[in-house]
Design brief:
By secondary structure, the chain is an alpha+beta fold. The protein is about 15% helix and about 30% strand.
C-alpha cells in the first residue's frame, strides 16, 4: 500500500481493512476520523455495528484514544480502537511524500482456533517481519455475522492524503468445527486498486454463494445415496472419531494417499455394535479421511462406501461406519 500526501499539507485521516456485516457504502458523515466506518450516531452504539477493522491511522484525533498520528489500531464496532500500536518504534511512517516515498505491505493474520489477530508491516518486497506491530485476542465469531464482507475503507477531512491499495491477497483455511468453536485462519497481504474494492467484494460474495449452493447439492446427493444403501452403515458423530484418533494425531497416521489419510484409533465400548452377543468392548479401528474438495471426491467416497459395505472376507477389514462433516468425509473400519 502507499499513502501519499503533498509536501505543503498535513496527512489525514487514514485507511482500514474491515470485516463488515453488509456491502453497503460508508455511512453518511463518516469522513474525518470516522475512516468511513462509523459516524457520530453509530459511535454511540458500538455493540450493534458488527464490524472489525484494522486501521492505519495518520491523524491524531482529539479525545485521547489515538496514541499519535502514525499508528495501527484494532477497531471493534467503533473507531476508538480496542488496542493501538505506534509505528515509530518499527521505523515505519504510514504517510509519505516525495521527499521520502515508501510502499508497504501489511499482513493481517487471524487464527480462529486460538482466537487471536496479529498485524505485521514492512517495506514492500521484503519478507514478513518476525514480530507483529500489533497482536491481540479476538473472537470474530462473537463480533461479526457468519456472512460478512471483506474490504477497505478510508477517509479524509481538513487534512487529506491519497490512500492507494496497490495489490492484495486473501487466504482462508477452514477446519471441521466442533460444538465449541468455529474457526478460520486469515492471512491477508493488504493492497488493491481502490476503484476495484467494491467490485472485488461483490465477486467474492457471488462466488461464495455459488460455492455454498454447489456444496448443498453435493450434500443432498450424498445423503440420498447413503440413506438408500441396504443395511446402511452406522453414522458416527465427528466428535467420536476425533476422540478415537486423539484429534487425528500425526503419530497415529497409518498412511496417506491421493484422496486423503488413514489414522489408527480406538472407539470406546458400545460405540460399535457387536452381532455375536459378546459384551461391548473398546474397538480398534482405522479411520480414512477424504480431504479432496471436489465433486469427484464425493463420488469416490460413495463408491468406496458402497463396495466395502458389501465385502466380507477374513483378510479385509469390515466397514463399521462413516461420518461426514462440512467438506470432509470419513470411513471407519474395524
Amino acid at each position: 500500500m502507499n499513502v501519499y500526501y503533498d509536501n505543503e499539507s498535513r496527512p489525514g485521516e487514514g485507511l482500514a481493512f474491515v470485516v463488515a456485516p453488509t456491502a453497503d457504502g460508508p455511512p453518511p458523515g463518516s469522513h474525518g476520523g470516522f475512516l468511513g466506518l462509523t459516524n457520530a450516531t453509530l459511535e454511540a452504539t458500538p455493540a450493534t455495528n458488527r464490524f472489525v477493522a484494522v486501521e492505519f491511522d495518520t491523524f491524531k484525533e482529539p479525545g485521547g484514544y489515538d496514541p499519535d498520528d502514525n499508528h495501527v489500531g484494532l477497531d471493534v464496532g467503533t473507531v476508538a480502537s480496542n488496542k493501538t500500536a505506534s509505528l515509530a518504534g518499527f521505523n515505519i511512517t504510514i504517510a509519505t511524500n516525495k521527499t521520502a516515498p515508501a510502499n508497504y505491505t501489511a499482513w493481517i493474520e487471524y487464527d480462529g482456533a486460538a482466537r487471536r489477530i496479529a498485524v505485521y508491516m514492512g517495506v514492500r518486497g521484503a519478507p514478513r517481519p518476525a514480530t507483529p506491530v500489533l497482536a491481540s485476542p479476538l473472537d470474530l465469531s462473537e463480533l461479526v455475522p457468519e456472512r460478512a464482507y471483506l474490504g477497505f475503507t478510508a477517509s479524509t477531512g481538513v487534512s487529506f492524503e491519497l490512500n492507494c491499495i496497490l495489490d492484495w491477497n486473501l487466504t482462508i483455511e477452514t477446519f471441521p468445527a466442533d460444538k465449541k468453536s468455529k474457526g478460520w485462519v486469515v492471512p491477508v497481504a493488504v493492497a488493491v486498486p481502490v476503484a476495484a474494492i467494491a467490485a472485488a467484494a461483490f465477486v467474492v460474495a457471488r462466488m461464495a454463494r455459488a460455492r455454498r449452493s454447489m456444496e448443498r447439492r453435493r450434500q443432498e446427493r450424498l445423503e440420498h445415496t447413503l440413506t438408500n444403501l441396504p443395511g446402511m452403515p452406522k453414522e458416527f458423530a465427528f466428535e467420536k472419531l476425533r476422540k478415537a484418533t486423539k484429534n487425528f494425531d500425526e503419530r497415529l497416521r497409518l498412511g496417506k494417499g491421493g484422496y486423503g489419510m488413514v489414522y489408527k484409533g480406538v472407539l470406546p465400548a458400545a460405540a460399535v455394535d457387536d452381532d455375536d452377543g459378546r459384551p461391548p468392548a473398546a474397538t480398534e479401528v482405522a479411520v480414512k479421511m477424504f480431504t479432496r474438495d471436489d465433486a469427484k471426491c464425493v463420488d469416490d467416497f460413495l463408491k468406496e462406501v458402497q463396495i466395502i459395505h458389501r465385502l466380507r472376507h477374513r483378510n479385509i477389514v469390515p466397514l463399521v461406519g462413516m461420518s461426514k462433516i462440512f467438506k470432509l468425509h470419513y470411513i471407519t473400519f474395524a
